[in-house]
Amino acid sequence: MKAIRVVQYGLGSIGVGVARILLDRPGFQLVGAVDVAPEKQGRDLGELLGTDPVGVVVTPDPAVAQQADVVVHATHSRLVQVEPQVLQLVACGVDVVSTCEELSYPWFHHAASARRIHEAAQEAGVTVTALGVNPGFAMDLLPVLLTAPCRHVRRLVVERRVDVRARRLPLQQKVGVGLTEEEFHTGVAAGTVGHVGLPESVAMIASALGWTVDAIADQVRPVVRAGRVEGLRQEARGLVDGEERIRLDLTMALDLEDPVDRVRVEGDPSFVAEIPGGLHGDAATCAIVANAIPLVRAAPPGLRTVLELPPLRYTG
Ligand SMILES: NC(=O)c1ccc[n+]([C@@H]2O[C@H](COP(=O)([O-])OP(=O)(O)OC[C@H]3O[C@@H](n4cnc5c(N)ncnc54)[C@H](OP(=O)(O)O)[C@@H]3O)[C@@H](O)[C@H]2O)c1
Questions:
Q1: Cβ(11) – ligand 1 distance below 6 Å
Q2: How far is the CA of 48 from the centre of ligand 1 (A)?
Q3: Residues spanned by CATH 3.40.50.720 within the chain?
Q4: Residue having the nearest C-alpha atom to atom 1 of ligand 1
Q5: Atom of ligand 1 nearest to the CA of 174
Q6: For 119-170, what is each residue's pLDDT tens digit?
Q7: Per residue in 92-127, pLDDT tens?
């Protein structure tokens, strides 16, 4: 088998984490690394990974993607920033596996953008998929898979509780740790505070189960202790004919008791499935992306959601 040639585009903690996994896996060859951060440019990728030199020098020029079969893309969460980057990669004729939250299921909220990417990818004969732990697994794909043994599903309730105490500073900042309540709400309105992707997960679940949602509500509240924000609770709800059929309940806060990933299926049968302790977001995302690469390569051209890939699984 020929090795899959990979360019890593975006060398933050996710990009670096995926590159470390791929370096250890036979069947992958890292052939390029792209990042705009001035302090990373011109350095050997191995320096950023904390390994021996790998002979790949970080460049700001995405055209290096032309040397690859697939680009792992991990830069931003919003489609407005990511669409031009993805279209440029598609024009290079490579498959794209991205961690952009809004790209995971853009068909509900950003249909025009989704169509542009889908058509460009089909024309170029390449596949674009965005996924990670959330969106991409814990609060959409996993609950969808858990409905397989059901004769009937009335409602899905998914809960993810993450203790961010031991997590990196940018994540703590993203959930508002240290802010006043007023600063928290200003940050939410400006888009600097809050998890991106929950409404996309609702839309993805609805499409998988054949439910037409009338509306998707997304509400973010601060978790406040002793007058300071220590995190957030974010809920997204999918209404079908005015009735709540999907509820995604995400809490990310300092010193959270009983972190967990929990799915409650209400139907025939009704049951609860859970991952005690919950999945570590960054570690799981890096593994999910690495595991998805061969599956994205095998998927038909176009913008494909994680639901359209062959079953997501360990592929190492
Ligand atoms: N779906 C999921 O479950 C999931 C899970 C984890 C993360 N994510 C998302 O994945 C993305 C990456 O995460 P991260 O934690 O690694 O982010 P990060 O630490 O901000 O790293 C992103 C890197 O990409 C660089 N970059 C930005 N724009 C670029 C461009 N146009 N071309 C090349 N490089 C560019 C940034 O440089 P500068 O610092 O100079 O801007 C930075 O080095 C984020 O949007 C994050 O929210 C999704």
A1: yes
A2: 15
A3: 4-131+283-308
A4: 132
A5: 47
A6: 999 999 999 999 999 999 999 999 999 999 999 999 999 999 999 998 989 9
A7: 999 999 999 999 999 999 999 999 999 999 999 999
CATH fold of 141-277 reads Dihydrodipicolinate Reductase; domain 2 (3.30.360)
4-131+283-308 has which CATH code? 3.40.50.720
**pTM listed for this prediction:** 0.97
Which residue positions in the chain have pLDDT lower than 50? none
* CA 140 to centroid of ligand 1, rounded, Å: 22
Instruction: Print the SS3 string covering the chain.
Output: CCCEEEEEECCCHHHHHHHHHHHHCCCEEEEEEECCCCCCCCCEHHHHHCCCCCCCEEECCHHHHHHCCEEEECCCCCHHHHHHHHHHHHHCCCEEEECCHHHCCCCCCCHHHHHHHHHHHHHHCCEEEECCCCCCCCCCHHHHHHCCCCCEEEEEEEEEEEECCCCCHHHHHHCCCCCCHHHHHHHHHHCCCCCCCHHHHHHHHHHHHCCCCCEEEEEEEEEEECCEEEEEEEEEEEEECCEEEEEEEEEEECCCCCCEEEEEEEEECCEEEEEECCCCHHHHHHHHHHHHHHHHHHCCCEECCHHHCCCCCCCC
